[in-house]
């Protein structure tokens, strides 16, 4: 199959992409977080193609993307007030809500769960494609399963050329990490994945938020978890990633001591001068965590190269969007973190 590239601004892009979706095909769509691999979320055969193209485990459910908040009640039942409050505050935007699913949503989409994840993305072209398709669009991050997410059309092309119908090229994604996921099906709202909407912003609207253990620790692959996707190795280049924590100079001294040719250093812009000769790659500025979230996956993909043996990574601290960056980097590192103050 030839994969068509459809520039977001071209006049025929929206109707063409909508038609491919209605016909049961696969279209990669730009969003403010990452590129998604979209299909008609109500067509189990179309949804099956997503799992096949990505090599995604069947027990990992998909997010349904909607064009407007009104679709919450069409797709979900027993919707709590908190869902409307969150939609009003953050949609369109990088927030996914898990709610009780109506029975007509295929098992292929929900992976057999009684719940479904919903999101209204902050990309006007993609919302109009969804609206013209006339169906909710199931879309996981468009990367091959296990690999770093796709934040440009070129990333999607590299992973799926010849395997999907089209890619809508909307340029690089602004946020760069996937949406925040909140489960609203229990008595207390639960953060399943941090993202562009920060824990602080959620708490301001909800007044309450518990953080799922999958956010902060490695989950056993046989564990029963709220967000099945959180237990798989994720966002990972081929080489092992080790986070080197601690203060800048001390971390640099540790990395320089342990560095051997074939290793790479993933660091902050501000740290580049400390790593001359250590093949550093900066993914953003420590002083502006939004640049780190925007640059993380492109950097991890660049380091996903058989010639790279080991990656030392510097990770931001603190809340806000930095919290989501920490989560992705720790998962990429399988929670391997060294603190030079404690290790030689
Ligand atoms: O920003 C995003 O959310 C991107 C863009 C394309 O919208 N999509 C995305 O999808 O990140 P994906 O499939 O890579 O991640 C979806 C996560 C997985 O961890 C999955 O297990 C979880 O959402 N999920 C989906 N449905 C769920 C449900 N009913 N209950 C709990 N977790 C769910
Ligand atoms: Mg993903």
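^ Assign residues to that structure.
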């Amino acid at each position: 199959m030839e994969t068509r590239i459809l520039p977001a601004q071209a006049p025929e892009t929206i109707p063409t992409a909508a038609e491919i979706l209605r016909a049961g095909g696969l279209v990669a769509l730009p969003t403010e977080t990452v590129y998604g691999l979209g299909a008609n979320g109500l067509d189990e055969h179309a949804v099956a193609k997503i799992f096949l193209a990505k090599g995604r485990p069947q027990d990992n459910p998909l997010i349904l993307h909607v064009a407007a908040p009104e679709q919450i009640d069409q797709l979900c039942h027993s919707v709590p007030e908190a869902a409307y409050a969150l939609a009003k505050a953050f949609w369109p935007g990088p927030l996914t809500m898990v709610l009780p699913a109506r029975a007509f949503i295929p098992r292929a989409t929900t992976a057999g769960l009684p719940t479904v994840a919903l999101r209204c993305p902050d990309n006007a072209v993609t919302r109009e494609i969804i609206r013209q398709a006339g169906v909710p669009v199931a879309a996981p991050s468009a990367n091959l399963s296990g690999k770093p997410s796709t934040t440009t059309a070129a990333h999607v092309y590299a992973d799926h050329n010849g395997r999907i119908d089209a890619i809508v090229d909307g340029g690089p994604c602004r946020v760069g990490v996937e949406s925040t996921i909140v489960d609203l099906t229990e008595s207390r709202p639960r953060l399943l994945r941090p993202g562009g909407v920060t824990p602080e912003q959620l708490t301001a609207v909800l007044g309450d938020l518990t953080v799922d253990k999958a956010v902060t620790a490695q989950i056993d692959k046989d564990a029963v978890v709220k967000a099945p996707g959180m237990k798989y190795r994720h966002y990972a280049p081929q080489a092992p990633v080790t986070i080197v924590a601690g203060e800048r100079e001390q971390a640099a001294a540790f990395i320089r001591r342990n560095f051997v040719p074939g290793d790479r250093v993933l660091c902050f812009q501000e740290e580049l001068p400390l790593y001359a000769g250590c093949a550093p790659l900066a993914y953003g500025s420590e002083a502006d965590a939004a640049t780190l979230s925007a640059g993380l996956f492109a950097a991890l993909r660049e380091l996903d190269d058989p010639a790279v043996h080991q990656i030392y990574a510097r990770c931001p601290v603190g809340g806000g969007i930095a919290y989501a960056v920490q989560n992705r980097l720790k998962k990429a590192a399988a929670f391997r973190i060294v603190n030079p103050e404690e290790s030689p």
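The longest strand covers residues 95-100.
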